[in-house]
Fold this protein.
Amino acid sequence: MRVSALSLTDFRSWFHVDLELGPGPTALVGPNGQGKTNLVEALGYAATLSSHRVSADAPLVRAGAERAVVRARVERGGRSTLVEVELNPGRANRARINRSPVPRPREVVGLLRTVLFAPEDLALVRGDPAERRRFLDDLLVLRAPRLAGVRADYERVLKQRNALLKTAFLARRSGGGDMRTLDVWDAHLARTGAELLAARLALVEGLDPHVGKAYAEVSSGQGETSLTYRSSLGEALPATHERVDLETALLSELGRVRPQEVERGVSLVGPHRDELVLSLGGLPVKGYASHGESWSVALALRLASYQLLRGDAAEGDGEPVLVLDDVFAELDVGRRDRLAELVGSAEQVLVTAAVADDVPAALVGDRYDVQDGLVRRVR
């Protein structure tokens, strides 16, 4: 899988830009603040319908514009597919496949698969649990696009249930309250939560060996890393991890903690309360690892994601496009060279850098200079 063309209209700093891309490595080089990251951010948005830099769409639309459009032409298995996404802050976004509108934007998810390395990845290691949950869910959706709907349904149910919990708290204070509606939403949360939880548990099991291997390669074997999924079910987590068993366990636990939930007005059980624990040498990475070790773990998570998706390519899903956004400036020479060697054989790699010397020799290929609102091909 690769992207042969990327076109942006009113996306971030770009009024309009068209970029042709070839296989192998391509470097986007230019001073900071010239829009290099905006280009690869748009590519990631076409793949996931989200940005690795912001959580809302409004900042992605150029100041003064009403909407932004991202177009990516994806080549896979001898077929060419045009993916178009229109961002409309305050209104529903729209999407097209080969110029034909689709009912929901998430229909385009899975047509393009990307793995992005960026300075923000350090938050995967040092940030809040929400960062690691998002990492897992984004990867889940790339592997199985239908889970985008499950993820959206769970978030909708959770929002509604939390609103009801707050209402129940106020009703109890006044001596009233009908809890039957809450029972219905408990069932919804358990059902959608069980499907999301089962998918996450299976993903972590498959990802763990890849992370350990990737960390050893990036860090030259200095320490062993591992992943552990910590569920809000605690000891009530079924050993089988079957969806029906997880649903039963979630429903039971929701009933057990309801008094505390009503008092606090928030749901205390479910995938939204879970944590992905990263360990290095038997200790949690967060709080114990050095800056270099933390970077290596973050890189290992992305490399492991790439290897997992690359394995899916054997089933016809296509090898993911690799994006290295200003990563090499953050790494020492050893980690820089090892990372370049590990990803140099990818079908397509996009690299952004402030100066050409930051691009390792193993990733020298096509080059574009990005400056003053222009993208100019150098070679």
